[in-house]
UniProtKB/TrEMBL annotation:
EC top class, as a word: transferase
Organism encoding this protein: Catenovulum maritimum
Occurrences of domain PABS (ranges): 7-243
Pfam families assigned to the protein according to its UniProt record, in alphabetical order: Spermine_synt_N, Spermine_synth
Catalytic activity: S-adenosyl 3-(methylsulfanyl)propylamine + putrescine = S-methyl-5'-thioadenosine + spermidine + H(+)
Gene designation per UniProt: speE
Described function: Catalyzes the irreversible transfer of a propylamine group from the amino donor S-adenosylmethioninamine (decarboxy-AdoMet) to putrescine (1,4-diaminobutane) to yield spermidine.
Gene3D superfamilies assigned: Spermidine synthase, tetramerisation domain, Vaccinia Virus protein VP39
Keyword entries, A-Z: Polyamine biosynthesis, Spermidine biosynthesis, Transferase
Protein name: Polyamine aminopropyltransferase
Statement: the UniProt record of this protein carries the keyword Transferase: yes
Associated pathway: Amine and polyamine biosynthesis; spermidine biosynthesis; spermidine from putrescine: step 1/1
Any one GO molecular-function label of the UniProt entry: spermidine synthase activity
Similarity comment: Belongs to the spermidine/spermine synthase family.
Top-level taxon of origin: Bacteria
Length: 284
């Protein structure tokens, strides 16, 4: 399936932020409308496969490691012993794979609303799905908002919200009620990680998210930034929210060992990511 003469350019155009990003593609391989979103898969000339949801770039074969490693390892190495981890969204399974690299993890549950995303990931991004058969992994298809609402109090060590932008089915993953459910479900030393968009383009969203997290009762927040070449502005962020106490020191030695098995994450990257640059310090 291809709309134009090959090769051509796929462009994610953001009118709201006055920016656009393009990848040169050979072919559009898939275009399907699920119950929740339009899913497209492209074969690019230089970035491998590309998954696009509702016109927004999600994952490419070449550079998804920045996002998946930084959504998981800083929080998991900050926690003293993460055992029970939940990923909300994350249907491409890349975050789940990173979580399962941690030997302390006994259960990792992924809840994505859209089974078609995972079907497409298994087919076009098999490297992200290679831990799906791990006996500690459970993959559920359903609404993450309801899942967190029904979660047992103080049952989880880490919750990672690897969601699409806050529109459509993921809108409720960014609000006060959802953060309240997460707070209740976390153990006292638990950590919530929320993908928090571009630190250049979406400062208002990050600020409001942080305010809501504090208002429901999280004790400490840390927004971290990292490169994300195919997302608007090329720089992305996630926000860590600690249920009780400070973040304290991370498990440096364990992180150093794990980093041999990572493309971007390392103890040095961890330390640097935990320091907010001035432009963001001023705006948050
Ligand atoms: N890395 C991407 C980003 O930052 O834009 C997001 C990754 S994508 C795998 C996000 C996933 O969130 C999608 O597969 C989508 O189906 C899922 N999602 C959206 N709303 C959801 C909800 N309410 N519950 C569970 N999953 C949801």
């Amino acid at each position: 399936m291809s709309d134009f003469a090959s090769p051509y350019w796929f462009t994610e155009q953001c009118d709201k932020t006055g920016s656009a990003f393009s990848l040169r593609v050979k072919n559009k391989i898939v275009e399907k409308q699920s119950q929740f979103q339009k899913i497209e898969i492209y074969q690019t000339t230089d970035f491998g496969y590309l998954m696009v949801l509702d016109g927004c770039t999600m994952v490419s074969s070449r550079e998804n490691f920045f996002y998946h490693e930084m959504m998981s390892h800083p929080a998991l190495f900050t926690h003293p012993k993460p055992q029970n981890v939940v990923v909300i969204g994350g249907g491409d399974c890349g975050t789940l794979k990173e979580v399962l690299k941690h030997t302390s993890v006994e259960a990792a549950t992924q809840i994505d609303i859209d089974e078609l995303v995972t079907d497409m990931a298994k087919r076009y991004f098999p490297e992200l799905c290679e831990s799906n058969q791990d006996p500690r992994a459970q993959i559920i298809f359903g609404d993450g908002i309801k899942f967190m609402h029904d979660a047992l109090p103080e049952s989880l060590d880490i919750i990672i919200v690897d969601s699409t932008d806050p529109v459509g089915p993921s809108e409720g993953l960014y609000d006060y009620a959802f953060y309240q459910s997460c707070l209740n479900a976390l153990k006292p030393d638990g950590i919530l990680v929320q993908q928090s968009e571009s630190p250049i383009l979406h400062q208002k969203l990050i600020k409001e998210m942080r305010e809501a997290m504090l208002e429901v009762g999280f004790s400490n927040l840390q927004t971290i930034i990292f490169p994300q070449p195919i997302y608007p502005s090329g720089l992305w962020s996630c926000t860590l929210a600690k249920k009780q106490g400070d973040f304290g020191e991370f498990r440096h030695k364990d992180a150093a060992e794990m980093s041999n098995n990572c493309e971007y994450y390392s103890p040095v990257v961890h330390q640097a990511a935990m320091r907010l640059p001035n432009f963001l310090k001023k705006s948050l």
